[in-house]
Write a structure and sequence with these properties.
The chain is mostly helical. 72% of the residues lie in helices and 1% in strands. It starts with a helix and ends in an 8-residue tail after the last helix.
Amino acid sequence: MESMLKKKRTILAFVLPALLIYIGIVLIPIFDTIYHSAFKWNILGDKKFIGFDNFINLFTKDKIFMLGMKNTFMLMLLSLAIQTPLAILLAIALSGKIKGKRYFKTVFFLPNILSSVAVGLLWTFIYHPEFGIINSVLESIGLDSLTRLWLADKRTVLPSIIVVICWQFVGYHMILYLAAVENIPTEIKEAALIDGVTKKSMIWYITLPLIRHMIRIDLVLMATGSLRFFDLIYVMSNGGPNHASEVIASYMYYKSFRDYQYGYGSAVSVVLLVLCLMVTLILNKLFHTEKIEY
């Protein structure tokens, strides 16, 4: 085995197919998008080189883009603030010996395997102002004043979508944390209990520090996923009303394939790429620690 690993040709033969696929579906489209961001192009006509004008217009003249950036960061921050503690608490609750553990794991994870389009349509009916279950329940208990046009009101549309996002993906993050929590050696927990450590202190001083590496990885996945979120928003509100739920990804689609401003849409996608890289670097820097060995 060692002699095989020393042969560079053997290593290259195994790595090359995956590397070629990665270059073809990731790197080439990225560089192609960066290239087209410097042009004014409607896909059908001739390209006109305009340099950084698309980026200048984005940050100086395009109010919808700035609103989309605000909504994107709000979606990301609220997703992190809601899903992270909830997923960790669920993971800790399910890590012990409880009855129906497999059932609860399945129930919490099930929304994650559903199509986002199906989830969006389902919740669109739930939020429906006339026959949706939320308004119906509020009316039945005498809280008519709290009924809303949930997806048609600019004050409630984005929070309503964030609730759906958290509902769909919190089970996925719970499974990641559950794997990390159950990987903590039982000797550490038993020693802590013998020393008289309370359950609350054990969570704060033992469990959380020992799953810190998983928290860092999950925060990066959650943050970058939130920045790139598109499908649920497209299905449920299409960025409306009046761009109130517009995010960077949906605005990129809007400019590229509805306004046929492909160069401008490419500039939006480049900004999104840079934001994802910046958020990843910041989170990795914040959670940079020495490797913990048990």
